[in-house]
Amino acid sequence: MAVVQPAPKPAPVFEADAKHPVARLAELHREAEETARLANLLGRSIHAAVALPLLAAATLMAGGVDPAESAAWMVFILAGSAAIGFCWRRTIAQPFERVALRSFSQDLSAILVFLGFAWGAGAFLVLPADTSIGIVVLFAAGAGAVLTLLLRERECVFLFLAPTAALASFACVLRPLGGGALDAAFVLIACIAVAGAAGLTGMRGARSTDLPEFLSA
To answer: What is the rounded distance in angstroms from the CA atom of residue 22 to the CA atom of residue 3?
Structure first.
């Protein structure tokens, strides 16, 4: 009578997608860098939310034209700043949750696009028609430079600067402001220079692995 041999045990199957420890360590390092970068952006964003209304108020004191248009422009700026404050308050309770930080970053990007259009509209609404070329350039590129210093995140600055530069340069030609097309060219050159500085600042910020500034004090 033949003896039935037990079936051999299958060889252990290892997951095909099992990661090498070094690869996993590199992934954890990238996640930690992303979390630190986004947490720093969260901490800095509240400074931008305060700075933009102050810059808008200084612009109005320097030469607002029509009270109704000036008030409407200020409402847009305050609305954008309030939106940043709302998102900051919602996220600051969980400053190291990557999902919450990514959501905040996406919301901040959308708000900065709105603020860029709102700020650029100020060239139509609040700048006098005889504004000098220096004031026009300062109005368009100055806010972007302040955001570069405060946020140190190139994508955020680009999202604000692009609509600001476009609307301000259009205002130079369409209203027209001061030197017309010459003003528009200087506005674009100044905004491109600020964008380049933001790119360099963003590259340095991306290499930083420091603790978030609002926790490292």
So the answer is: 49
How does pLDDT run along the chain (217 residues), one tens digit per residue?
455 555 555 555 444 455 666 666 656 556 667 778 888 899 899 999 999 999 999 988 876 678 888 999 999 999 999 999 999 999 988 877 888 889 999 999 999 999 999 999 999 999 888 888 888 899 999 999 999 999 988 899 999 999 999 999 999 888 877 677 888 899 999 999 998 888 886 655 555 445 455 444 4
The radius of gyration computed from the CA coordinates of the chain, to the nearest angstrom, equals: 25
Burial class (CB in 10 A: 0-12, 13-18, 19+), 1: exposed
The pTM (predicted TM-score) of the whole model is: 0.78
How far apart (Å, rounded) are the C-alpha atoms in residues 25 and 189?
43
DSSP per-residue codes, 176-203: T-TTTHHHHHHHHHHHHHHHHHHHHHHH
